[in-house]
Amino acid sequence: MDDAPTHSANPWPAGGLALVIGASGGIGAALLAHLQADLRFAQVLGLSRSSQPALDLLNEASIAQAAAHVAGLGQPLRLLIDATGLLHSPGQPPEKSWQQLDPVQMAQAFAVNAIGPALLMKHFLPLLPRQGHAVFVTLSAKVGSIGDNKLGGWYSYRASKAALNQLVHTAAIELRRRQPQALCVALHPGTVATALSAPFAKTGLQVQAPDHAAARLLGVIDGLQAADSGGFFNHDGSVLPW
Ligand SMILES: NC(=O)c1ccc[n+]([C@@H]2O[C@H](COP(=O)([O-])OP(=O)(O)OC[C@H]3O[C@@H](n4cnc5c(N)ncnc54)[C@H](OP(=O)(O)O)[C@@H]3O)[C@@H](O)[C@H]2O)c1
User: Fold this and answer.
1) Per residue in 169-189, pLDDT tens?
2) 61 CA to middle of ligand 1, Å?
3) By alpha-carbon position, which residue is closest to atom 6 of ligand 1?
4) Is 157 within 8 Å of 94 (Cβ atoms)?
5) Among the four residues 30, 91, 110, 146, which has the most C-beta atoms within 10 Å?
6) Per residue in 202-229, pLDDT tens?
7) What is the residue range of 108's domain?
8) Residue 4 falls within a domain, yes or no?
9) CATH number of 203's domain
10) Is the pTM of the predicted complex or chain greater than 0.90?
11) 159 CA from centroid of ligand 1 (Å)
């Protein structure tokens, strides 16, 4: 049985554009496929470092150009899902101890996991319509929760996702003033079988297929209410501690 959260009411105004950033990733590609199969949006677009136009979080000009491209499509931007993120890169596993802290690795994690999504907010939040439901989602991670941190380790990833959560909460306050019907939230997708999680997938851990995770996340997104803006939610829709 599919245990994805389901919501019968369709919160989306007719037409409009759904955009996935990080569409080349494991979860991003699955989200894009689900949205393309879902006729609730008039247009569905995926962007990544390899799309046309390309969007690289480390290059603000590429983000601005991508936002201009999206604005030029002429559809109201109803849903943006940021599915980018970085946990490890070649030769740089997440830190197990403070002895492994490396300023270059830390800066890279903050650049991709916090500053990049903040620049997405800068260039894409103004595109959310002033009228009608619209949602900006960024994929965070439960390990970015300070309240939930019992294991330690993964310093850069944890801290950059905690920074991301603060950015989401802060942007939601400004968004409420500018576009009162639009929401900005952070979601934890659960453990999902992708390149990001592959080196750490332990037997016994509940690992979801990307397709299943995408369905669950879209169920949570469909159920979001105005009061949820600025929040940090698990893939079952429950609230996560900061
Ligand atoms: N998988 C899990 O178990 C899990 C658990 C908790 C949270 N998350 C979060 O879920 C999100 C998606 O993760 P995933 O598992 O789907 O990872 P993934 O398969 O490794 O995908 C990561 C995505 O981020 C993009 N990206 C990385 N650096 C970028 C940059 N400089 N500019 C633009 N895009 C960049 C990648 O693009 P390229 O293809 O160009 O490299 C790719 O599209 C991440 O935020 C991750 O932290 C995942």
Assistant:
1) 999 999 999 999 999 999 999
2) 20
3) 141
4) yes
5) 30
6) 766 689 999 999 999 999 999 999 999 9
7) 17-233
8) no
9) 3.40.50.720
10) yes
11) 16
